Amino acid sequence: MSAPDGRTVTICGWVRTKRDSKNLCFIQVNDGSCFASIQLTYDRENPNNSNNSNSNAIEAELSKVTTGASVIATGKLIESPASGQAVEVSLETLEVCGISPSDYPLQKKGHTIEFLREIAHLRPRTNMIGATARVRSQMAFAVHSFFNENGFHYFNAPIITCSDCEGAGEMFQVTTLDLDRVAKSGEVDYSKDFFGKKASLTVSGQLEAETYATALSRVYTFGPTFRAENSNTPRHLAEFWMIEPEVAFYDLYDDMDLAESFVKYLLNWALTKCADDLAFFDQRVQKGLIETLRNVANADFARVSYTDAVAELEKNNDKFEFKAFWGCDLQTEHERFLTEQIYKRPVMVYNYPKEIKAFYMKMNEDGKTVRAVDVLVPGIGELIGGSERENDYDKLKNRIVELGMNPEDYWWYLDLRKYGSVPHAGFGMGFERLIRYVTGMSNLRDVIPYPRAPKLAEF
């Protein structure tokens, strides 16, 4: 915080409020760099102002000032008598760069979050979305800092791919074919398409990251991914960012160590670097948020096998909408119960049934489970999903065939198991899920600048 030492400062930003009386005018200006605004004060009875040759010019500009207008102002930085602010600016010059007419959508406070989604191009000017954007920026920097400090190389996975990492088929297709002609003929000839075969937007950079991990040892991806899942819920987006480290010579337990240290690093970064914005979220969005984040950052994560976790859940099945049983895919209500009621701390559930996990995960000796892990945290449930990858050529190929997939589509991925194969592991964290957790926001659409969802791509 700058000291009220009377020096001349220049303020550039957007007007949040204006209060004008006979002798005094107060203007709150925010430039988005931090949560706090600064107050410009103009005292018409101050001799320095009434005798100032700029007084007429200032009055003319003051008449243009409305909520949302952009201004450039200069003045002396002085101590503020008002509560909640240490300094203010005694106005000496004022220029309204851009006027804001009466139809400015953010004239009043208390707009609903649903309304703000309808004006995604203006909503960053609100306290809530502006704070979310600053937290998102800081957390992106924290991601790169963590991996850089731990010897990882940043790898840019392709956005266009011809393989489905998840095997679910919920991918957006990329094509230059004439769709009207295809519809009329009823035939698709991919040999005439741009890439010569069916191509899609990626759902994950993991498979490609594995190729670089087997050359550089430690890599991570951090970029956009896409999923054409027709889910209109607060937990789904069609376009989202994924963080995916991949490490050669790692097993499942190394992977869990990495995931735990990663989560703690990110939360400590948020608590340190985003204190003002988190204080707003704690007060206005989710009471107790800071305490929750601090508790997770300082906790020893429990490590529980899927079998043991389900056994605990089955004892409490009367509390769940979806009953837990061995072989079920854990629901959010199950994940939260484990973290909030049973273990009362973050939980890492590992060794899942093979039927509910992806084809690339390494099989355990029991033939029923794979070396997968989900990191669950209080409040939202799953934050990270990862696994040790299958590094045996024949086992991986058999699994691909078993699931009805075409091994030829994964020939290059199988090659990694032929030439110098090594144990390796990694995980994925949805960046928006992280931001949702750190801010306490309830909907992923409010923690990404321009959300993409079913029937939503206007901005």
Largest sheet: 8 strands, mixed
Radius of gyration: 27 Å
Run of helices and strands: EEEHHEEHHEEEHEHEEHHHEHHEEEHHEH
By secondary-structure content and strand pairing, the structural class works out as alpha+beta
Q: Care to count the β-strands?
A: 16
The poorly predicted ranges are: none
Give the spatial strand order of the biggest sheet.
6-10-11-16-15-14-13-12
What is the overall pLDDT average? Answer: 94
Seen as an oligomer or otherwise, the chain set is: single chain
Structure characteristics:
459 residues, 16 strands, single chain, 8-stranded mixed sheet, 24% strand, 31% helix, alpha+beta, 5-stranded mixed barrel
Characterization of this structure:
With 459 residues, this protein is an alpha+beta fold. The protein is built from 14 helices and 16 strands. It has helices spanning 47-50, 55-62, 113-117, 127-149, 179-185, 206-216, 252-273, 275-284, 289-298, 306-314, 332-342, 393-402, 411-415, 431-439; strands at 8-20, 24-30, 38-43, 70-79, 87-98, 153-154, 160-161, 173-174, 199-201, 218-226, 239-248, 302-305, 347-353, 369-377, 381-388, 424-430. Strands 6-10-11-16-15-14-13-12 form an 8-stranded mixed β-sheet. It has a 5-stranded mixed barrel with strand order 1-2-3-5-4. A hairpin with a 7-residue loop joins strand 2 (24-30) and strand 3 (38-43). The longest helix has 23 residues, at 127-149. It is elongated and about 90 Å long.
